[in-house]
Every structure is written in C-alpha cells, then in structure tokens.
Design brief:
GO molecular function: lyase activity
Subunit structure: Homotrimer.
Keywords: Carbohydrate metabolism, Lyase
Number of strands: 9
Shape: globular
Order of helices and strands: EHEHEHEHEEHEHEHEH
Oligomer: single chain
Strand order of the largest sheet: 5-4-3-2-1-9-8-7-6
Structural class: alpha/beta
Protein name: 2-keto-3-deoxy-phosphogalactonate aldolase
Number of helices: 8
Radius of gyration: 16 Å
CATH topology: TIM Barrel
Distance between the termini: 17 Å
CATH superfamily: Aldolase class I
Number of domains: 1
Pathway: Carbohydrate acid metabolism
Low-confidence stretches: none
CATH architecture: Alpha-Beta Barrel
Length: 200
C-alpha cells in the first residue's frame, strides 16, 4: 500500500540511510526525501535509489536551483521538494522527468507553481497557515491538485488537515532526527502510519 506521506530525513548520513530507509519502507512509508543540507545528500539519494528502486520513490528536499535538480536526477532521484516556489526549478524538474513539489503559502504562489508544471503543492510551513487557511485556499484551487501539509502536520492532527483538504503529508522530526536509532525511526514511522490508516 502506498500512502501519501513523504518522510523527510534531514541530517541523515550515507552510512545510515539504507537502514533508516528500510525501516521506513517496512513500516509502509514509500516516499523519502533527503534534504540537500544533509551530509553528502546525493550519496544517500543514490544509495536509496539503487537499493530500493522498486519499492519506493526517493529524492531531495531543500532544492533551490536548477543545478541541484540536475544533480539529483543524475543521482537517480525521482522527486524534488523545495521550501519555495521557483518556476525555473519547477520547469527544470518536470523537464528532467521528476516530480515537483514546491513550497507554497499563498494562493498566488499556488497558482504560479501549478502554471509552471508542479506535480503537487507543499503547504509550508503548515503551522503558520493551519487547516483553516488550507480550507480557504482549497475553495479556489483545482480539485485534482494534491496539497501536502508540511511543518505542523503529524499523527495528532491528520484528521483536521484531511478535513481541510490535505491530500497528504510531509513528516520530518516526528519520524527522523539526526542521532535517532533505526529502532526509534521504525517505531515513529509505525505511529505515523497507524494514525494515517485510522483516518475515516
């Protein structure tokens, strides 16, 4: 089963990424991003793509330039996640055949991202906008446009976000923080998956 959850492994190192990735896949989270401000992020993305290519979707977060898009594509990444809405990055991502998930906070950014070809929208930081803000924007966004809540969305409030129109979630520190053991990551991932699967 594929769930609309992106695990954000900020700070993960290449030496641990395969064990962490396997724990997430086993728990049922099949989309993993390695932010580019992590140690040797391209090495981690390449390792995930080569080892688990048939089991999930892997790529980069905190992608800010078209050059970084090319680097991620060459490493075997399939998904580009950004904290901002940069049409040039979105177009480069789509031209490379990758999924594009730019960060947006306003209707203007949402529509600019969609016009540039974004696969979906990353509402970030979700804690500043809240489910009420998303609900207001959903009234004008295309109904088939997936919006993921990131930064302020977690097991404790999935239901409120989903009711507001969130199609999925990006989960960072609730799943992984640098220094966590693989067992801790696995337990955190199971908690997130259980909460998502319990949604009506």
């Amino acid at each position: 089963m594929t769930r609309p959850i992106i695990a954000i492994l900020r700070g993960v190192a290449p030496g641990e990424v395969l064990a962490v990735g396997e724990a997430l896949l086993d728990a049922g989270i099949t989309t993993i991003e390695v932010p580019l401000n992590s140690p040797e992020p391209l090495a981690s993305i390449e390792a995930l793509a080569k080892s688990f290519g048939g089991r999930g979707t892997f790529g980069a977060g905190t992608v800010l330039t078209t050059g970084e898009v090319r680097d991620v594509a060459q490493a075997g990444g399939q998904i580009i996640v950004s904290p901002n809405c940069d049409p040039a990055v979105i177009r480069a991502t789509r031209d490379a055949g990758l999924e594009s998930w730019p960060g947006v906070m306003t209707p203007t950014e949402c529509f600019a991202a969609l016009q540039a070809g974004a696969t979906g929208l990353k509402l970030f930081p979700g804690s500043l906008i809240g489910p009420e803000g998303l609900a207001a924007m959903r009234a004008v966004l295309p109904p088939n446009c997936p919006v993921y809540a990131v930064g302020g969305a977690g097991a404790e409030n999935f239901a409120a976000w989903k009711a507001a129109g969130a199609a999925g979630f990006g989960i960072g520190s609730a799943i992984y923080k640098a220094g966590m053991s693989v067992a801790e990551v696995a337990e955190a991932a199971r908690t997130v998956v259980h909460a998502y699967d319990a949604l009506p």
